[in-house]
């Protein structure tokens, strides 16, 4: 991919994206009759209808009220979401910041009319105009949830929470005296390169890393060296949450990057698991529900976007996933989330999270995402 084309993937720039916006279809001006169906691409655990736990169901009432039958296709990585949206056949996607602007640049999503979403007024001010869904003053979706990528660990091995991501990156004996080789995991998406960059930002300040998604050649080389050093330690590069949970239960894995969702699910099974954000900080995600440019069920999609911003829905999702709501009002009075749920999940840590975004070249100044993708695949393969 050329540097010129890669620049179009930026979350913060540029004239290229502005041009895309001008050429994009105009948002709907009014809602007609619901089409009776809605097809959504979502992260695992993001859209529940009570199949796992009857208390967690924010689909059934929507279907009853709207007449829109919800169908969900789960995706395990942002790259998978981008690929599915390119193929088409879906109305909405819960895109993270490392996918959202790629979808805008690729004209896979359309701008939305927030006037048709009454609950837009409830959205957290920190998210309303976030650069991962706002381009040239137009919004390309409604904020859904946000949170950090946590360090999940086995509490039988770690009597106290690990204080550093080094348990994943550096060969060492863990708290139980056994080596970490073959007992730790890393995420299998290229965006994980930013996790290694964030670690080096703290431990090798001489590299001058400021933004873990904007790496010059020298910084990038150091990050790749760290990831190659890590590779022999890795039991599995995870993306399937069910497989990762099984690895913690049955395969001797004791520490890994993870989402709060896996932590919650394992704790519900009374597994010896907890999570922490180590001293170096964490990468994270702020996800946006985005409308496909060729959505076949746009009225149902708009109704879902509004429904997804209901305070109870936001609180229920946060309780289930271990994430933070895009609607601050959801933090109060939600039985499932509890009085301290938002505080426990890190509502006040917004400014401490390095949110996912697609790396851009900026005229060759930084290494573009196309390189991240190629190099991380090679590293996972031991090259």
UniProtKB/TrEMBL annotation:
Its main location: periplasm. One of its GO terms (biological process) is polyamine transport. One of its GO terms (cellular component) is periplasmic space. Keywords: Periplasm, Signal, Transport. It comes from the Bacteria. It is found in: Periplasm. The keyword Lipid biosynthesis does not apply. Residues 1-24 form the signal peptide. CDD domains: PBP2_polyamine_1. This is ABC transporter substrate-binding protein.
